[in-house]
Amino acid sequence: MEFQQLQQALNRFLPLPPAEWEEFSKILSIKQYTKGEYLIREGQVEHYIYFLNRGATRNYFIKDGKEFTVDFQFEGDFVTAYYSLITREPSDIFIELLEDTEAVCIPVKFLNEFYARYHNGEKIGRLMAEYQYIKRLRKEMDLLSRTAEERYGDLMKKNPALVQTISVKHLSSYLGIAPESLSRIRRQPPKN
Fold this sequence. Notes:
47% of the residues lie in helices and 22% in strands. The protein has helices at 4-11, 18-25, 82-87, 108-117, 119-145, 148-158, 160-163, 168-175, 179-187, and strands at residues 29-33, 38-40, 48-54, 57-63, 66-73, 78-79, 94-97, 101-107. By secondary structure, it is an alpha+beta fold.
């Protein structure tokens, strides 16, 4: 099944009955992207939610010529310029592909129609929004209460091979530390 990974991810929120899944899967498409491409750029309006079958992304914005990395997504994650998707206003962020990526594309226009027709779809949408809120709150709490070493360790647990390939500049921006501090953390032996 070409959308099996997505179906498994949605099942963590709420399993859709087979007839509803079949209807939902009709709106989906799979697209291949190349490292360095963008899912969205600042100033564009978001029209999709993406599910990463394979690959990784970096969300960032630019202020006064400086890039600020706000998030990374890896295989099995959903990614979108959420603020733009909801408000229909131009995005403030870029979503850059860090490696060749295969993504399931979910068009928001059809997703909203699916929500209107199926209570389960609407419920999944709400549960996913709640999950994103919790994820964002945890990140904010981590930035305020955990050390950079702990935050780096969490990221390493999620995707160690890819984290080793992300530039020090992007990782340090995400962790809220200077590049020199991240280089020092990377040189330390792992803690058990």
